[in-house]
Fold this protein.
Amino acid sequence: MNKDKKVKVKSKKAIVIGTCLFAVFCLFRVSAAAAQDAARIAVEPEAINIGALYDGTTLTATGTVPADSEAIVRFMGTTCDLHMKEKGKVGGIMWMNLDSITFKGAPSACLVSSAVDLKGLEADGGVSVRVLRLSGLKRSVEVEANGDGHENAFEEFLKLKQKEGLYREMFGNISYESASEGQKRFRADVPIPSRLAPGNYVVKLDAVRNGEVIARAEQPVKVNLVGFPAFLSGLAFGHSALYGILATVIALLAGLGIGLVFQSRGSH
Amino acid sequence: MNIPLHLYLPIAGNSVNVLVILGLGGGVGLLSGIFGVGGGFLMTPLLIMFGIPPTVAAASDSNQIVGASTSGTLAHFRLGNVDFKMGLLLLVGGVVGGTAGVQIIKVLRQLGNADFLINLCYVLMLGIIGSYMFAESLQSMRKAQRNLPAPAARKQSLYGRISKILPWQMEFKRSGVRLSVLMPLVLGTLVGILAAIMGVGGGFIMVPVMVYLLRMPMHVVVGTSLFQILFTCINVTIMQAWRNHTVDFILALLLLIGSSIGAQLGAKLGKKLRGDQLKILLASLVLLVMAKMLYELLARPEVLLAYVGGH
């Protein structure tokens, strides 16, 4: 009896140990796979300071993505509602601002970077890569307008934002280093336009394989006004009447000064 | 050494090339000095072309016109070309008309299609004024070339007779005319209404009004118009900065440096030109702007959307 009991206990122990080992092995495999499918990103600079001489800058994003994936880096602004007028023909002859139209939830900026042409990635058949493109914003931006006939409003919105330089798709500005342990390092140089409003932005990284996003990461970027622009902006929005009077008085004095300079030159 | 050529404009939210803005200011200031117009109808579209938001472009332009017209008024004052009495009467009328015009535009906006009416108003006004000035000055230039003597006794028009019988006649020595006080007040009000509806300083309407309806000599018209524009733009700048936060002082200052120098050169250049030559040049400029606006009304825009608040 005792011998039988001992054998049973030993076999139970073996089962428990085996199960534990299998669980550890599974966990290891899962975490190894997860590690291989993970994405990491860091940005430099972490904050963009807009001083008096600011004329755009280059934001560098570095990190890792799975070796068999493509990195797509997006510089995104916070979402807001934009109120606009849509032009239409009056009397079949003249183009005028007619209907009011609001774009709800549109990001203030959207700069999409990739190493290869996004059209190629989209052709791989995945759905989620389409969402990462500018045209993919159509899913998240709500168009509110009075009347009918606004079918192309979103496309016109994209055109306007692209003309302003705040929405853009770029390819070729991401480079890779050779892969190791299932991961590859990337570097994205994102040109930030000069027409940039202060506020909170985010750099989003999506690793895409076969047209599907397999890993994501993001880093916040703060855009601040500093120095003289910060002072002037504070005065213009915080003490607007004083700012208006000062702007007028300085313009008057400058006009008088230039007038006097010319007078003295003219008299000699 | 690298000289920084770009400056960031905190209210416009964009950076600009300093040389481009100085050049724009200089070019428009030159025209302002020659013709006595503020140049808002030229400068604002040019600034929008260079990426400045429309509302900021219009308001900052008003701020720079304060400086440019100060400089221009001073230059014309030294040349004896400012009729202060006439200018103040037109200004009083302009303020009354401007206030009425703001109310009219509110009603138009509520009725809808206000922008269409504004643009149509622009094209018609510019077309009528430009064509009339062009034809009239061409005729007088031809007469001068042929050396024809001026008719000894011109038949007085109905308008001329009415202006003579109106009460409160006053001598305007600098302009060399005798008119009823009511005339500059009423005409100033009408120009003020149109200027408020069209969202401009009104120089390009005021100049022809002074020439053809108040019968002032062209050189005095230019100086007096600048004097009047100065006050209109002081009011606009303070109101826009206070209520709408759309005045970018850095942009205005850059434009001002260019335009003040341009206005001084313009005033000197204008003195070298004859009255009819000045008129035909201004008429050509007005017709050019009219043609551009008409094209914008007829041609399909590149983008069919515009931000609310811009022209």
Observations:
- Chain B touches chain A through 57 residues (CB under 8 Å).
- The first helix of chain B runs from residue 18 to 35.
- Chain B has one domain: 11-147+157-298.
